[in-house]
Amino acid sequence: MNMIEKLYEELKYVFEPELAVNIVDLGLVNRIDIADDHSVTVTMNVLKNTQKADMDCLVKGIQYALHSVDGVEAVHVNIVSNPPWTPERMNGEMKKQLIG
């Protein structure tokens, strides 16, 4: 398993507060970048009505989860609105459970 795969696996322990679904299966993570200084940047969306307190909780959860991976020196989270999140970004099984 390469480093990016390890990071995605750790992010499966971070749950979107309203839906109690992990952010990877929900399709909120757009990308993960690793810099030469071993800092990690997660670029992600949040759901449309996510409150600031929930965003702060997500960021802290991401930082906590990724700092547990050997070699990660720092974690940065960029929350973006473009491209917007849509239900099509969920993995197939999660889409069936939540939408039907």
From TrEMBL:
Coiled coil: none annotated. This is Iron-sulfur cluster assembly protein. Pfam families: FeS_assembly_P (PF01883). Residues 6-77 form the MIP18 family-like domain. InterPro entries: Fe-S_Maturation_MIP18, FSCA_dom_sf, MIP18-like.
